Amino acid sequence: MANRNTYPIDKLTLPVQNFIQKEKSGGIVLGITVLVALYLANSPWSYQYFHFLENKLGFHFNDVSFLKYSLHHWINDGLMSIFFFVVGLELKREIVAGELSNPRKALLPIGAALGGMLVPAIIYIAFNPAGEASNGWGIPMATDIAFALGVLHLLGKRIPLSLKIFLTALAIVDDLGAVLVIAFFYTSDISMVSLLAGLGFVLVMFIGNKMGVRNILFYAIVGIVGVWIAFLLSGVHATIAAVLAAFTIPSNVGINEGNFIKRINSSLERFKKMVPNDKVTLTGEQIHQLETIKEDTNCAIPPLQRLEHSMHPFVTFFVLPVFALANAGVSLDIDIQALFSTNVALGVGLGLLVGKVAGIVGFTLLLVKLRVAPFPDGMNVRNLFGVGLLASIGFTMSLFITSLAFSNEALITQAKIGIFVASIIGGVLGYFVLRTGKNLYPPNKQDGN
């Protein structure tokens, strides 16, 4: 940044900051973490790797244990709740003022997402109609937005901006679908007392929003201590609490743009007129004025977007990699006969690779043919097919639903193999389909101008 003092530490931190700010970086880090997990699961330290995750953590008071779960459970119910909280923030932003706020523009990605969820589930059930294996029908319904968008951003300006927007909106709707599937179909025995307590805390957050409470700390305390713990104890998956809490976060500004500009200009003029003390520190008057600017800036940014912006790097570069490290490890020393002792791997693999593509492309073309919604500028059948292939990268969400669907280790392993194979093939094919497609659109269309 121009005119900013630079220090030796900046030489170390600036490259890291630049890497974090690149949209494809999250997919790269996630990919590396998957390889590390696979290595650990197939290395001489595999025993230590698997058993480390089974260590229990919790609270102990007067010979009574409270919230005592395995490390693996804390990652899937705790860290992933943070991920789903950010998903909830993104969902609300898209519904309030994003691609899903315009009904006509939203119809195409919504329809594509529905097709991309229904067809994979049908294919899976066709291969696994009964028994414990049938519980995995939700696994191929999911799309990993981080990986899919990471591959898309590798293509740069070879593809139109509208395609990135379409895939993002599709993935957001897909995430909402996954949340609903988890809420209604992958819950254990429900404690109505805990569930009602959790919903009561959600109501407190909602009332706080309507009363104009914009303090992030209020929502953090009520959301974590109230909503999340109550849902964790209720039997309804704790990630649902995170999404509900996210929807109570205020999405409106405290100061509109016109008033903000006036207040900032006025504050800057006053700051200019203040007499400096000719030292490296500021005067009390200067500090007060800068605090006023800071408060006005915070008021001009909706709490929802402030939270989403601040939490996104943490989720992308810590939460998802830790989840992958804990869940992507699968021993490759597999008996092929045992791998296909059920049709789980086949159902998951074909559900993702065939079902996602058929559902997304088929439903999209049907909506366009019926004139329900038009193709976005820059989209054609070829790059729609490429997007369908990228959406078959189920990875993070598919692994997460696998952990909810099965308790049998053999079925979990089979599902993971199906997820890995389909995600790799879909990602590679999607990249080359989009990369080799003929560019029919002028540069200004691609840049979104």
Write the layout of secondary structure elements.
Layout: H1 8-21, H2 25-41, H3 46-52, E1 56-61, E2 64-70, H4 71-97, H5 103-127, H6 145-154, H7 161-185, H8 192-210, H9 216-234, H10 238-246, H11 257-273, H12 284-300, H13 303-327, H14 336-339, H15 344-369, H16 381-391, H17 395-405, H18 409-435, H19 443-446
Antiparallel strand pairs: 1-2
Helix pairs in contact: 2-6, 2-13, 4-7, 4-10, 4-13, 5-7, 5-15, 6-7, 8-9, 9-10, 11-12, 13-17, 15-16, 15-18, 16-18, 17-18
Outline of this structure?
By secondary structure, this protein is an all-alpha fold.
Question: What are the main properties of this structure?
Answer:
mainly alpha; Na+/H+ antiporter like fold; 449 residues; two-stranded antiparallel ribbon; globular; disordered C terminus; 3% strand
Q: What's the CATH H-level homologous superfamily of the largest domain? A: Na+/H+ antiporter like domain
Percentage beta strand: under 5%
Strand order across the biggest sheet?
A: 1-2
Distance between the termini: 26 Å
Low-pLDDT residue spans: 439-449
Total strand count, please?
A: 2
Over all CA atoms, what is the radius of gyration?
24 Å
> How many discrete structural domains?
2
The CATH topology label of the largest domain is Na+/H+ antiporter like fold
Describe the overall structure.
By secondary structure, this protein is mainly alpha-helical. It folds into two domains: 25-187 and 237-252 and 302-446, Up-down Bundle (Na+/H+ antiporter like fold); 262-298, no CATH class. 70% of the residues lie in helices and 3% in strands. It has 19 helices and two strands. The chain has helices spanning 8-21, 25-41, 46-52, 71-97, 103-127, 145-154, 161-185, 192-210, 216-234, 238-246, 257-273, 284-300, 303-327, 336-339, 344-369, 381-391, 395-405, 409-435, 443-446, and strands spanning 56-61, 64-70. It has a two-stranded antiparallel sheet with strand order 1-2. Helix 2 crosses helix 6 (145-154) and helix 4 packs antiparallel against helix 13. It is globular, with a radius of gyration of 24 Å.
